[in-house]
Design a protein that fits this description.
The complex is a heterodimer of chains A (903) and B (111). Chain A has 903 residues and is an alpha+beta fold. Helix content of chain A is 52%, strand content 15%. Chain A is built from 26 helices and 23 strands. In chain A, strands 12, 13, 14, 15, 16, 17, 18, 19, 20, 21, 22 and 23 form a 12-stranded mixed sheet that branches. In chain A, strands 3-4-9-6-8-7 form a 6-stranded mixed barrel. In chain A, helix 16 packs across helix 25. The two termini of chain A are 58 Å apart. Chain B has 111 residues and is an alpha+beta fold. In chain B, strand 2 and strand 3 form a beta hairpin. The relative contact order of chain B is 0.17. The chains are: A alpha+beta (903), B alpha+beta (111). The interface between A and B is medium-sized, with 33 and 26 residues.
Chain lengths: 903, 111
């Protein structure tokens, strides 16, 4: 490629050199040569015919020469064309930059508008990309399913019992492999990377040895589990997550083959998984926390347990090509078998089935609806931004009509002018995108900090190539969207007419005005849609905040303990420790009340099961009553301010050996003993008739899993009669919950220095976290709504202000004829409000038709809630009125004489 | 083969000759052919047609430019002229050629 060849602007057209097709020119040139030679030969005395032949002979291979010249000529022309384009583009860009520099206000407003639109879209898309689109780090994710016990309507994703799992494993035909997972807690003590370190509790999962094969995840170091690992008596082994390995063991690869102390006993590390593998990556049913490590386990020995003992998550890989629907048929057949074999346990009436749920669907679940809503909203904001900038450009266009007309008169074609105007929008968009991506990177960081726990994989969000490609795509779309319409409009200007106009009255056409008005209509409509969405989420969130959760967590700090069974190997040791702990915590500095409980409301932990009521036998085939269970120590209800409706709280006397007792919530009491006192009634929680517990108290119902979930009836067993190793401690102080933390840690350390304290969190924090996603989507949508409102108001204001400026002389005449300022005000405002009302009407229609999109995300608020729609309508109407009033006021102050003289 | 053997052109020499021809002023392809013919007294055997691909190539390289003009025959003809870069190229090729020729003749004379 030759470089640096000069291309002088304009020169290519003047010479007409390139106006005829290259081929013709070659022919003409060669023909000239032959003709000249022929004449010369004749002059030298040759015959006509002979001269012709001789000329051709001397010329050589005519066809080859012609072919070569044409090829080179065409290549030259193409090059020149490109050079011309490049030159024009540079010229246009330079021109655009000069124009933008000359009107700094326009430039700043347009740049900011675009930056906000593109930045918000980039940020939200990066979240969508990380959460929804980027594949999970497993082989053929589409083949992975979770298998649950499904009680239609009441419990969608209930765990599987080991006995059921064993049967599934034997009978299934639709899966290449299935594996089980159950949650454990592991206390890590002893050595770690940096010498001595604090004892630590990590979330671990006991998994079938084939678990990683089912996932299709390979280890970073060492190996995954083999069948031997699950057997009883085999060497005790573990696989670490990358996070735990890096944090606690300093990413030391010699860890493989070393024994580390878990729950007081050594286990050999056989593998480390790569960073993205943290199954469950996002909450899957009751498997809510990411894994720190995995232990192999075979549930063969638990096969004999009751089928009601359901605590396994089941992960399976569907046979390739078989599909989830086929797998479901297989499970339905197995379920039918269960029914005939255990008619007492599985009945038709319970509407029970074994359900396969695609893993991706379950992990991303309702985050998908939230993100789609946000993406839709942010897309609308971008459209408004585009409409606004288009309007600005059009408005500026009326000022620039003369300039464009002059350019047209000087010979610039319409295509050339469109290209020049599009270059201007491209230059604007380039600037806007750069600012927008900057904005997005700040926003993403803020977003990740806001809420790492409640949108799955949110901490994976980053601006990567795909996200930037998306931004680029929307930037191009934006440039065309806001650039093309004004460009086409303005290039249509008839140069003769425009040149004749005086500068003051250079009004634009009727069509132009209508076009700008319709842009404003669309802006207002879109703003209404986004604001209605925001309004609905705000109302829903307000409802959520007002929910009576049944407890008052103000000033309450909580933390979790898991006693290692190696040292706490009897119920007596466990309860003795708890009694001591409760006494110490209650006496600690700053603590007013303290109690122990498992599971803690809003912690994400759950426990539920069936029970029987004395004297209320369940007819065969009917489900047993079901309740949320908890074990508590005396003082728990007082600490959490859970009102005692009847009877008494547990005391230290309700211990082993004493009569077995239970406290139920008012919901359970109402269901089973309506109209009579629950006190003294007896129920069985073990399923044995000779093992009854007596109701001694009734407390208020508590929302255990989140304010939005009212949950099942509840029953509380005394911890002292039901010793178990995992427990939460709650302590209430008069001040902030956080101030209690150091004292609480100290008490535990003094009692058992090797016992790790984990999940130290205040109750208000836990409650807020339970609705963090709702809060986040509400805040974002409100931000988008506010942006949309501002942009739309600016848009309407702009249209009206220009309309007034253009009609100055007309308004002047009206004033001169005695129309009066009030009349002028009315006329201008009426014109503006026509636009506003058209926009609002259109917006209402769009909002109503999109209401389905938001309905799944609302709590106790209808998707067509008239109050929200009304409030937003009125708000926008008022804003529109202000946007029209300001230019209308200016119109009344026009000096009639001035205006008329100018025209 | 019986008559005198005209010199065959060395690769790239044609370009230099054309540049030299144009250094006396703009002319069309046929005029270049004629000029070469007269200056060398037909000592060089050049297929006249081969001038044209060479002209196009040099035009692409930016050594010469072309414009349509009127010829002495009263027909439209494409007239080539030397650019500044073409002039530089000519200088370069001339000095390279002299160097080459002196080296070759030195070798041949000592042999």
């Amino acid at each position: 490629m030759p470089r640096g060849r000069r291309v002088r602007p304009g020169s290519f057209r003047l010479g007409g050199l390139w106006s005829a097709p290259v081929d013709q020119e070659v022919d003409e040139e060669l023909a000239f040569h032959l003709e000249a030679r022929r004449r010369r030969l004749i002059e030298q005395g040759m015959e006509q015919e002979a001269a012709h032949a001789e000329a051709l002979r001397r010329f050589g291979d005519l066809e080859r020469v012609r072919g070569q010249c044409r090829t080179i000529g065409q290549r030259m022309e193409a090059e020149m064309h490109r050079a011309e384009l490049r030159f024009e583009l540079r010229q246009d860009a330079g021109y655009a930059l000069r124009m933008l520099r000359r009107s700094p206000l326009f430039t700043v407003v347009a740049l900011l508008t675009l930056a906000i639109g593109i930045g918000a879209n980039t940020a939200i898309f990066s979240v969508v990309h990380a959460v929804l689109l980027r594949a999970l780090p497993y082989r053929a994710v589409g083949e992975l399913v979770m298998i649950w016990n499904n009680y239609d309507g009441s419990l969608d994703h209930a765990a599987i019992a080991p006995a059921e799992f064993a049967d599934l494993q034997e009978r299934q035909k639709a899966f290449t492999a299935i594996s089980a997972i159950s949650r454990q807690q592991t206390n890590l003590t002893g050595e770690c990377g940096s010498g001595t370190c604090e004892p630590e509790r990590v979330t671990s999962y006991a998994v079938s040895p084939n678990f990683f094969d089912v996932l299709g995840a390979r280890p970073l170091l060492g190996r995954t589990f083999v069948a031997e690992d699950g057997r009883e008596g085999a060497e005790r082994v573990a696989i670490l997550s990358h996070a735990l390995w890096a944090r606690r063991f300093g990413a030391d690869s010699s860890i493989i083959g070393r024994a580390i102390e878990m729950n007081g006993r050594p286990r050999t590390v056989v593998g480390v998984m790569p960073p993205p593998v943290r199954f469950p990556d996002a909450p899957v049913g009751f498997l809510t926390e990411r894994a720190g490590l995995w232990l192999p386990y075979s549930w063969e020995q638990s096969r004999a347990e009751s089928r009601g003992n359901q605590y396994l998550g089941v992960l399976a890989r569907v046979r390739p090509g078989s599909g989830v629907a086929r797998a479901q048929q297989d499970l339905d057949a197995i379920a039918a078998g269960f029914r005939t074999e255990h008619p007492d346990r599985y009945s038709e009436d319970m509407r029970w089935r074994i359900l396969a749920v695609p893993l991706v669907e379950q992990m991303l679940g309702d985050a998908r609806a939230t993100l789609i809503l946000l993406l839709a909203a942010v897309g609308m904001v971008l459209l408004i931004a585009c409409a606004n900038v288009a309007n600005l450009m059009l408005a500026r266009g009326t000022v620039r009509r003369k300039e464009l007309a002059i350019r047209a008169a000087l010979g610039a074609g319409r295509g050339r002018i469109v290209r020049q105007l599009l270059t201007e929008s491209a230059v604007l968009t380039a600037g806007g995108s750069a600012l927008g991506v900057l904005l997005a990177s700040v926003g993403i960081r803020a977003l990740a900090r806001l809420d790492a726990a409640n949108i799955p994989r949110l901490d994976d969000v980053r601006l990567d190539g795909t996200v930037l490609a998306f931004s680029l795509a929307i930037a191009v779309l934006t440039a065309v969207l806001f650039g093309l319409a004004p460009a086409l409009q303005q290039s249509r200007a008839d140069s003769h007419l425009v040149m004749k106009e005086t500068s003051r009255s250079a009004s634009d056409t009727r069509g132009g005005r209508r076009f700008r008005a319709s842009l404003a209509v669309v802006e207002i409509a879109l703003a209404l849609v986004v604001l209605v969405g925001a309004g609905l989420l705000v109302r829903s969130f307000a409802r959520l905040q007002r929910v009576d959760t049944g407890f008052d967590g103000t000033g309450v700090m909580s933390f979790q303990l898991a006693l290692p069974r190696a040292r706490y190997d009897s119920a007596a040791k466990i309860t003795a420790f708890y009694e001591q702990l409760r006494a110490r915590v209650a006496a600690a500095h700053g603590v007013q009340e303290a109690g122990l409980v498992y599971p803690l409301p809003m912690s994400g932990d759950g426990w539920s099961g069936s029970f029987e009521v004395e004297g209320q036998p369940v007819p065969p085939g009917q489900p047993e009553p079901h309740a949320e269970y908890a074990v508590v120590m005396p003082g728990y209800f007082r600490t959490m301010r859970i009102p005692l409706r009847m009877g008494r709280d547990f005391t230290s006397q309700d211990a082993d050996g004493a009569p077995k007792v239970v406290i139920v919530d008012e919901e359970l009491a109402r269901r089973h003993w309506p109209g009579e006192s629950a006190i003294g009634k007896r129920i069985s929680v073990t399923g044995r008739d000779d093992d009854l517990v007596t109701v001694i108290g009734v407390v208020a119902h508590v929302h255990r899993d989140g304010p939005q979930l009212s949950g099942e009836p509840q029953l509380y067993l005394p911890l002292l009669q039901n010793a178990q190793t995992m427990v939460y401690v709650v302590a209430r102080g008069p001040g902030s919950a956080a101030s209690l933390a150091p004292a609480l840690r100290r008490e535990v350390r003094q009692l058992d220095p090797d016992l790790p304290v984990s999940r130290m969190q205040s109750m208000p924090h836990l409650v807020a976290r339970a609705v963090a996603r709702q809060r986040l989507s509400m805040l974002l949508l409100v931000a988008f709504g506010a942006t949309a409102l501002l942009l739309a108001a600016l848009g309407l204001y702009g249209v009206m202000a220009i309309a007034v400026a253009q009609r100055e002389s007309e308004i002047g005449i009206r004033l001169a004829l005695g129309g009066g300022p009030a009349h002028v005000l009315r006329v201008v405002v009426r014109d503006g409000m026509k636009i506003a009302l058209a926009g609002l009407g259109l917006g209402l229609l769009v909002a109503l038709s999109l209401s389905r999109l938001v309905s799944g995300l609302l709590f106790e608020v209808g998707a067509t809630d008239p109050l929200t729609y009304g409030a937003i309508f009125v708000t926008l109407l008022f804003v529109a009125l202000v946007a029209c009033y300001i230019p209308a006021r200016r119109a009344t102050r026009i000096d009639p004489v001035e205006a008329m003289r100018a025209s | 083969m019986a008559n005198q053997t005209p010199l065959s052109l060395l690769q790239g020499t044609l370009d230099a000759l054309i540049l030299k021809t144009l250094s006396w002023g703009p002319r069309h392809g046929y005029a270049i052919a004629r000029w070469l013919e007269e200056t060398t007294h037909d000592a060089l055997r050049i297929e006249e047609g081969s001038l044209y691909p060479a002209l196009y190539r040099m035009q692409q390289k930016g050594w010469i430019t072309a414009e349509w003009g009127m010829s002495e025959l009263g027909r439209r003809a494409k007239i080539y002229s030397l650019t500044r870069r073409g002039r530089e190229q000519l200088r370069l090729e001339t000095s390279q050629w002299s160097h080459f020729a002196s080296v070759v003749s030195k070798v041949l004379q000592t042999a």
